């Protein structure tokens, strides 16, 4: 039985005794964060690592402190009921140390460049090691990681990318959907807030999709990146299949335990001279102040370029 199914069956018992004013934020935390993150996990397979991973994702998504507390609190209640029902020996949601993780993430927002990979060589090493660690040596994992880094996007958005979303005239990607986990499995849904944004594809990203676009020229709905089963994948699936947590630590990038590769993409785009308004759009930050941390040392605003953000000679990673 999955956590979502168990929560539906035992919800009333789990929340018994809660004050009415507490119910609303608890329900919101359960519906908006717990279920999308780990609702598909079987109750008997719930571990502290699963809970910590969910917390890391919520922190990375910039959830506020009260939001984190409410989401974790309702998860604690539901899993406490699972302990009483004999499904678990102990409550894995009773974790500690996440407040320090939250404070560290807050501090990192002031210096996001420190969360970027140092260059394309480091990205290639990471991609190659992830492929090597995957049970079937699936090369697609490496391409997914490279594409996410060069575009500054989320793995969930790469999973939902279809051929029709790429404009080869301007070499841009209209990001409008993402893959999420629901009780019935992985599904595609509209981007958060149903927002859409346009992401420029730099040469390295174009190389990764060119062959896929050619193969899908008659099927605009075709996915450009898939898991080994030629279907959707999630961030959790990628991390588990490639041994992500162990690999990033082995390669000296422990901050990637908490973050994806968006900071890498945004930093490299800033170094390559992407105009600040475009960088704001890619980063989903309406205010320029929110993305100035990605600018090169000295806070020099990247100069707009005639071709919409291609690298200036000698600026930023070249591919």
From TrEMBL:
Q: Does the keyword Hydrolase apply?
A: no
Q: Name one Pfam family in it.
A: Phage_integrase
GO BP term (any one): DNA recombination
Among InterPro entries, the record links this protein to: DNA_brk_join_enz, Integrase-like_cat_sf, Integrase_catalytic, Integrase_recombinase_N, Tyrosine_recombinase_XerCD
Superkingdom, natural source: Bacteria
Q: Does the keyword DNA-binding apply?
A: yes
- Domain Tyr recombinase, first and last residues per copy: 145-282
**Which family is this protein grouped under?**
Belongs to the 'phage' integrase family.
Protein name (record): Integrase
Q: Which organism is it from?
A: Streptomyces lydicus
């Amino acid at each position: 039985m999955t956590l979502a199914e168990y929560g539906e069956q035992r919800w009333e018992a789990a929340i018994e005794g809660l004050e009415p004013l507490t119910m609303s934020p608890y329900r919101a935390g359960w519906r908006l964060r717990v279920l999308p993150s780990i609702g598909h996990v079987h109750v008997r397979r719930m571990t502290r690592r699963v809970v910590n991973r969910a917390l890391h994702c919520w922190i990375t998504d910039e959830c506020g402190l009260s939001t984190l507390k409410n989401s974790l609190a309702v998860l604690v209640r539901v899993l406490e009921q699972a302990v009483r029902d004999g499904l678990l020996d102990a409550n894995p949601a009773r974790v500690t140390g996440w407040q320090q993780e939250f404070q560290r993430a807050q501090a990192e927002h002031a210096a996001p460049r420190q969360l970027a990979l140092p260059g394309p060589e480091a990205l290639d090493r990471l991609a190659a090691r992830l492929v090597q660690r995957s049970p079937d040596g699936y090369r697609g994992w490496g391409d997914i990681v490279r594409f996410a880094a060069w575009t500054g996007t989320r793995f969930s958005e790469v999973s939902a990318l279809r051929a029709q979303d790429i404009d080869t005239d301007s070499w841009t990607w209209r990001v409008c959907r993402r893959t999420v986990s629901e009780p019935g499995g992985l599904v595609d849904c509209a981007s958060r807030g149903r927002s859409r944004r346009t992401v420029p594809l730099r040469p390295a990203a174009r190389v990764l999709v060119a062959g896929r676009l050619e193969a899908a020229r008659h099927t605009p709905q075709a996915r450009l990146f898939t898991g080994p089963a030629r279907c959707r994948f999630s961030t959790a699936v990628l991390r588990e299949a490639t041994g992500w947590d162990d690999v990033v630590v082995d390669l000296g990038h422990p901050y990637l335990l908490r973050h994806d590769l968006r900071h890498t993409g945004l930093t490299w785009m800033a170094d390559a001279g992407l105009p600040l308004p475009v960088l704001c759009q890619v980063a989903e930050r309406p205010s320029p102040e929110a993305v100035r941390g990605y600018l090169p040392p000295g806070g020099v605003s990247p100069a707009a370029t005639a071709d919409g953000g291609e690298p200036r000679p000698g600026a930023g990673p070249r591919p």
